[in-house]
Design brief:
The chain has 10 helices and 9 strands. The protein is of the alpha/beta class. The protein has a 7-stranded mixed β-sheet, sandwiched between helices. It has a two-stranded antiparallel sheet with strand order 1-2.
Length: 286
C-alpha cells in the first residue's frame, strides 16, 4: 500500500479487501474491516459512520503493517491481540489457541446437561480461558477450576478472567497431574486432537498457533486417551465428561469412553453436521 496520499476509511477498506484477496478461503471484507478498526482504535460501526474520514500517517502505516502480517499468514486474532467468544472479548497470543465458533457447542451442551444451580467444574487445557469464562457468565454460582500445562498460557487466561471479573481458579497442571482429590460435576476440555503428521499443521493460520495445543500423537488421540482414562476418578456419579475432537474421531472417542467404563455416551455434531464433541457419564454404583 502506498502511504501517500493518505486514504479515507472507505479507500482503506477497499484497498485492504483487494490486498487480502490474495488469501483464499477467508472473508476479505470482514478481515480488512477488523484490521482497520483495530489500527484506528475504533469499533466497526464507527468505520461505516465515517467513511470519508482521512487516516493519519501513523494510522495508515499501522494498517499497512497489519495487512502485510496477514498476507504472511499470521491470523487476524494474533495481529489484533483478541478474539470474541460467547460475546466476550478475550486476549489471545501465540501462546494460546484461537477460540473457534464450533467450541461454543461444547459450552451449550454443558449448560444444557449439567442441570445444577451450583456445580463443581474442571476445565483441562483452558488456553485463553474461553470455555470457563463462557460457562461462568451463564452460571455465576458454578465453581470452576481452569488448568493448563503452560504457565504463559495460564497467565493470559487469568488476564481474561480478571478483565471480565470472573472468579475462576487457574491452576498449572499437565492434565490431572496437580488436580486436587475431589469430585466434579463436569470435566470439560478442548484438547489437542490433530494427527502429528497432518500437513495442515504447517499451512495457513495453523502455522502460527501453538503446536502443543493442536497435535497429539500419531492418531491425534494421545491427550484424549489420558483424559478419558483418568476422568472417572474425578467425576461424581452424575457428573459429565465432555470433550471436543476432530470431525472424523467420533467413533474412536466413543470407543475410548466405553473402554473406560463411561455410559450415556453421545457424539454430537456441529453446525456443519460433523462430529464435534463426545460426552459421557460414569456408571452408577449399585
Amino acid at each position: 500500500m502506498d502511504s501517500s496520499p493518505l486514504l479515507t476509511v472507505r479507500q482503506a477498506q477497499q484497498l485492504g479487501k483487494q490486498k487480502l484477496s490474495e488469501i483464499s478461503g477467508i472473508d476479505h471484507a470482514l478481515e480488512s474491516t477488523v484490521l482497520l478498526a483495530n489500527a484506528l482504535q475504533k469499533d466497526r460501526s464507527w468505520l461505516f459512520a465515517w467513511p470519508e474520514k482521512v487516516l493519519s500517517s501513523q494510522q495508515q502505516k499501522l494498517y499497512e503493517s497489519y495487512l502485510q502480517r496477514r498476507l504472511s499468514g499470521e491470523p487476524v486474532s494474533y495481529i489484533t491481540g483478541y478474539r470474541e467468544f460467547w460475546g466476550l472479548q478475550l486476549k489471545v497470543s501465540p501462546d494460546t489457541l484461537i477460540p473457534r465458533p464450533e467450541t461454543e457447542i461444547l459450552v451449550e451442551t454443558a449448560l444444557s446437561r449439567v442441570n445444577k444451580q451450583v456445580a463443581n467444574v474442571l476445565e483441562l487445557g483452558t488456553g485463553s480461558g474461553a470455555i470457563s469464562a463462557a460457562l461462568l457468565t451463564e452460571r455465576s454460582a458454578w465453581k470452576i477450576l481452569a488448568t493448563d500445562a503452560n504457565s504463559h498460557t495460564l497467565a493470559i487466561a487469568r488476564e481474561n478472567f480478571d478483565k471480565h471479573h470472573l472468579k475462576i481458579e487457574a491452576l498449572l497442571s499437565d492434565w490431572f497431574a496437580n488436580i486436587p482429590n475431589e469430585q466434579f460435576d463436569l470435566i470439560i476440555s478442548n484438547p489437542p486432537y490433530i494427527e502429528s503428521a497432518d500437513p495442515h499443521l504447517y499451512q495457513g493460520d495453523l502455522r502460527f498457533e501453538p503446536l502443543s495445543a493442536l497435535a497429539s500423537g500419531k492418531d491425534g488421540l494421545d491427550a484424549i486417551r489420558i483424559i478419558v482414562h483418568q476422568a472417572g476418578d474425578y467425576l461424581n456419579e452424575t457428573g459429565w465428561l465432555m470433550l471436543e475432537h476432530g470431525y472424523n474421531q467420533g467413533d474412536a472417542v466413543s470407543s475410548l469412553f466405553e473402554k473406560s467404563g463411561l455410559t450415556n455416551i453421545e457424539t454430537l455434531n456441529d453446525l456443519s453436521e460433523n462430529n464435534r464433541i463426545t460426552i459421557g457419564q460414569p456408571c452408577k454404583k449399585p
